[in-house]
Specification:
The complex is a heterodimer.
Chain A lengths: L1 H17 L5 H27 L2 H24 L7 H22 L4 H22 L6 H6 L7 H20 L1 H9 L1 H6 L4 H18 L1 H4 L4 H13 L5 H25 L4 H24 L1
Chain B lengths: L1 E12 L2 E12 L3 E5 L6 H8 L7 E6 L4 H4 L3 E4 L13 H6 L13 H13 L15 H13 L5 E5 L7 H14 L4 E5 L3 H5 L4 E6 L1 E6 L5 H8 L17
Parallel strand pairs in B: 3-7, 3-8, 5-6, 6-7
Antiparallel strand pairs in B: 1-2, 1-4, 8-9
Helix pairs in contact in B: 4-5
The chains are: A mainly alpha, B alpha/beta.
């Protein structure tokens, strides 16, 4: 009983802290998390339905190369314009294109090639971070650090949400057809390759958004777990998307709450919470069926 | 008048020759069957007609043009094995996919919805339109995929093993439907079961690397042995071979 009271009080602390003008980073983190839930829900559903979460994972990890290189340039040559976020976006888009080409045209050993891109990206990033003058903690990027979120990030996330919602709506039927049966979609004259690259590029941008909140290593779980939970309750792809948004927002809101109240890192708190829900849902569904 | 023409077509995957020197013509309005052993090249032949594969040599014409530009006049039903059973999609969603490619943005019009419903109706699947694809039986899924091909308003229908994994009763219903559809379009029917199709088609395309077109009446044990290269014992219960002796 005392356990529930402690966590109960802790959650009250969290909501009090959210309104405290001195703890602005918490509000930024929450705003970033809730706003990106829209992008995560939509793109996550496509990624899960098309079964390309492995590709999304590779894109996410290769982002570290972009962060490492841009931080190195920024500190070494005092280039203030060279924000790690730009590096992250550039690296994500570049790896989306490379991974897209590999998965479309590599006849064999696609998984090996993509696994290599995954690791090469991380290795490059770590090397550059190691050679960046001063001390940069790779942990912040790998597992998230909400203190790094700035006001500008929120605007960026909002912009990307608008982009993803509009593209996701305009091309919904085409993307649905491609995810379900790519060959048939091609026969209907849909530009399959183009839309596939669009999907990977949007995945890349989405992944970059929450790097400060959950980190490179964990972001893939936040992309796929809400969609996986939602798919258990959905009959249509758009239902899956709406539910994913709700689940993703819920995971972020409560996960951040626990991380703040219990003084735990935000990324792992959110992900552990999301995976507990995911496993519980699978278990309950299985019990109901049998 | 022929709607599909193949002249001296050869195709190989890597170094393995799958089809060799294929010559055939399919007439307008014909109901014709493609038979042959597994791995003999039936699906490859279909994919060449659709322009999904390019021949190593030879010429393919569909409705007097390149296969790729004839695609919109073709309704294609693939073998249904490769679909993700967890995919959240309803029967109507799938049939509507047959209406894609008619406008640049993928918003379905009222006409699209009407055509999709009609196609479902034709296959006797109207009452299932809001069911999940994963909830259907094998035979129902086949019918949904035929309905999707039909929603394309095709002039040619290519059906790849429409009767695989369905029981005899469903198979008979499907064959009735196919015969009915044949009144308004050319139909090419891939089947591994020669006995069943031979009762309703005039000509059979036998594919086993080489392609030979036989009138059904000429098919006898020799032809079958030649086609299956003696690997297969043919046991027939429902069909009496016409003898020419």
């Amino acid at each position: 009983m005392s356990g529930t009271t402690i966590t109960g009080n802790a959650m009250i602390d969290y909501f009090t802290a959210l309104s405290n003008p001195d703890i602005v980073f918490l509000r930024y983190a929450l705003a970033a998390g809730l706003l990106s839930s829209v992008a995560f829900g939509i793109i996550g559903s496509y990624v899960v339905a098309r079964r390309i979460s492995y590709l999304a994972g590779a894109i996410a990890h290769s982002v570290l190369a972009g962060i490492g290189i841009s931080l190195f340039i920024k500190v070494r040559w005092n280039a203030h314009w060279c924000d790690p976020l730009y590096g992250a976006i550039a690296a994500a888009l570049a790896s989306a294109i490379i991974i897209g080409l590999v998965s479309l045209y590599a006849r064999q050993r696609e998984d090996t090639a993509i696994g290599a891109i995954w690791s090469i990206g991380m290795a490059t990033g770590l090397l550059f971070l190691a050679k960046t003058p001063g001390y940069v903690d790779p942990m912040s990027y790998l597992f998230g650090n909400i203190l790094l979120i700035a006001r500008n990030d929120i605007w960026l996330i909002l912009g990307l949400d608008i982009l993803i919602v509009s593209l996701g709506t305009i091309f919904y039927n085409q993307l649905l057809a491609i995810c379900f049966d790519e060959e048939f979609a091609r026969l209907r004259g849909i530009r399959v390759e183009l839309l596939y690259f669009l999907l990977l590029a949007l995945t890349a941008l989405t992944v970059v958004l929450l790097i400060h909140v959950v980190g490179i290593v964990l972001v893939i779980a936040l992309l796929t777990l809400p969609a996986a939970v939602a798919s258990q309750f959905s009959r249509k792809l758009w239902q899956m998307m709406l539910l994913s948004i709700v689940f993703c927002a819920g995971f972020t809101l409560l996960g951040l709450g626990y991380s703040y109240s219990l003084d735990l890192p935000s990324g792992p708190s959110i992900i552990v919470f999301a995976s507990i829900v995911y496993m519980a849902v699978l278990l309950i569904r299985r019990m109901i069926r049998s | 008048m022929s709607v599909i023409r193949m002249k001296d077509v050869s195709f190989s995957y890597a170094s393995i020759q799958v089809l060799e020197n294929v010559n055939l013509e399919i007439d307008d309005g014909e109901l014709i069957s493609v038979v042959g052993p597994n791995g003999g090249g039936k699906t490859t032949l279909i994919k060449l007609m659709l322009g999904l594969l390019q021949p190593d040599s030879g010429k393919i014409e569909v409705l007097d043009r390149e296969p790729v530009s004839a695609r919109r006049y073709i309704g294609y039903m693939p073998q249904h094995g490769h679909f993700d059973p967890m995919f959240p999609v309803t029967v109507l969603d799938i049939v509507l996919m047959g209406r894609l490619g008619r406008s640049s943005v993928g918003i379905f019009s009222r006409v699209d919805h009407r055509m999709a419903s009609e196609a479902l109706d034709t296959l006797g699947m109207a009452e299932y339109s809001s069911r999940l694809f994963s909830e259907l039986s094998g035979g129902q899924r086949q019918r949904v995929l035929i309905a999707r091909a039909l929603a394309c308003s095709p002039r040619i229908l290519l059906l790849d093993e429409p009767t695989a994994n369905v029981d005899i009763k469903v198979e008979e219903q499907l064959m009735d439907t196919i015969k009915r559809l044949n009144e308004s379009m050319t139909i090419l029917l891939v089947s591994h079961d020669l006995g069943f199709v031979s009762e309703m088609v005039e000509r059979v395309i036998c594919v086993n690397r080489r392609v030979v077109v036989h009138p059904t009446s000429e098919i006898n044990g020799d032809v079958i042995r030649q086609m299956y290269e003696g690997k297969l014992k043919v046991v027939r219960h429902d069909h009496h071979w016409k003898r020419h002796d």
